[in-house]
Amino acid sequence: MTTQTIDIRRAEPRDAAAIAGVHNAAWTGAYAGVIPHRALGAMLARRGEPWWTGAIRRATSILVVECGGRVVGYATYGRNRVRELPQKGEIYELYVEPEYQGIGLGSRLFAAVRRELAAHELDGLVVWALEDNAGALSFYTGLGGRDFAEGVEIFDAKALKKIAFIWN
């Protein structure tokens, strides 16, 4: 029998290529057919290894989840960007490679981010998800998130509705 370790830690510059790979796989899986093809392709091209290296070096708050020493998910987080919402913390992105979804890694990563935000006195949490991303809506509802607000994100002139989930 082989035992796989699961670790959650802060991202380091050496993780940039792996995070870019997770981003590419997760976004392709979640948004192909939802976000217009050209806009999705541009986002994936822009968010390669150099972009993630820069984000890590700029001290962007990024946690990674490793399974057996391999980065298979990440989350970016910080202060809530929508002043009208009372929650102080926000998860900007939380993605796990499609083949590692459904086994609890996303939930563990979510809990780790909540602890990080609480340690910085950023109480309450908001996460935005596109309405057409059924997997994300189910995930955040399952974690106890309440559908609280709506917004719109524009991709190549296509308006997509997004939902704000909150936790107090």
* CATH-assigned fold name: Aminopeptidase
- SS-derived structural category: alpha+beta
The geometry reads as globular
Global Rg: 16 Å
Spatial strand order of the main sheet:
1-2-3-4-5-7-6
Count up the domains. 1
- Mean pLDDT value: 95
Sequence stretches where pLDDT stays below 50 over 5 or more residues:
none
Percentage beta strand: 25-35%
CATH superfamily: Gcn5-related N-acetyltransferase (GNAT)
SSE series? EHHHEEEHEHEE
Q: What is the number of beta strands? A: 7
CATH architecture: 3-Layer(aba) Sandwich
Give the CA-CA distance, first to last residue: 42 Å
Count of DSSP-assigned helices = 5
Sheet having the most strands: 7 strands, mixed
Give the % helix: 25-40%
The level 1 CATH classification is Alpha Beta
What does this structure look like?
- By secondary structure, this protein is α+β, with helices and mostly antiparallel strands.
- It has one domain: 3-Layer(aba) Sandwich (Aminopeptidase).
- It contains 5 helices and 7 strands, in the order βαααβββαβαββ.
- Helix 1 (16-31) crosses helix 3 (49-57).
- The model has no long low-confidence stretch (mean pLDDT 95).
